[in-house]
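Repro:
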Amino acid sequence: MNTPHPPDPKDRPARLTVGVVGAGRVGPALAASLALAGHRPVAVSGVSEASRRRAAALLPEVPLVTPEEVLAKADLVLLTVPDDALPGLVEGLVDTGAVRPGQLLVHTSGRYGTSVLDPALRAGALPLALHPVMTFTGTAVDVQRLAGCSFGVTAPEELRLAAQALVIEMGGEPEWIEERARPLYHAALALGSNHLVTLVAQSMDLLRAAGVSAPDRMLGPLLGATLDNVLRSGDSALTGPVSRGDAGTVAAHIAELRRHAPQTVAGYVAMARATADRALDHGLLKAELAEDLLDVLADETTGGTQ
């Protein structure tokens, strides 16, 4: 029996014209994903040369225009600018009369819900907050990574179905976030993802200093297994000298870091204290071993020496 092939997106009528204001790493990838679902990107704005290159690569033949022209051309507008720039952008677009009644305005900020779009709402726009929980490279691989990606979604009740449909069309999975919870939601993601980059990069630097020629190959299996274990088991996945109460080992670590990479000492101590607290709370660190360990970390916090 012949297996029917899914229709080519190019054969389906486009339902919405799509514009992008801010051709950073996120906007072109989302627009390209919407194009695969049958929508039609028609305009993009970008200032830097890097933004223009990204737009050309992911949205070929889509014209680069001003933000006001993007809104004039598109039914669905993706506002993909840095968090701090978003309120001013929204107010500026409203003040210039660029926002049209019935136009879908979608921002991708993790920090904000839909209240940041209130000026546009008063102008008749339909506000959505769709934040992809993914790290972006600014290349075509980002479109593939959207498959199965969670989106933090905040939307008015009457637009929830529309928000859900857009996320699903991009291959994502909607997760509803209350307006008041957006800052906490975003802080949690930054703690887990952004700080992970810093920790791993520091670890690779230290391994190089220790003579390891390929720290990425050494760390890859370890970090992959650790991530899998903690996602499955939470705090019970914890191992290492802090959870064992090896105060002498932790003191030796700090001494070596102070000698070779003093800029990492404060971060190591802060994370060791947080790890010790969680290990104690979950019964992984024995109370009788915790005292010496916490003394070592307290001495570092107060500027003492070992």
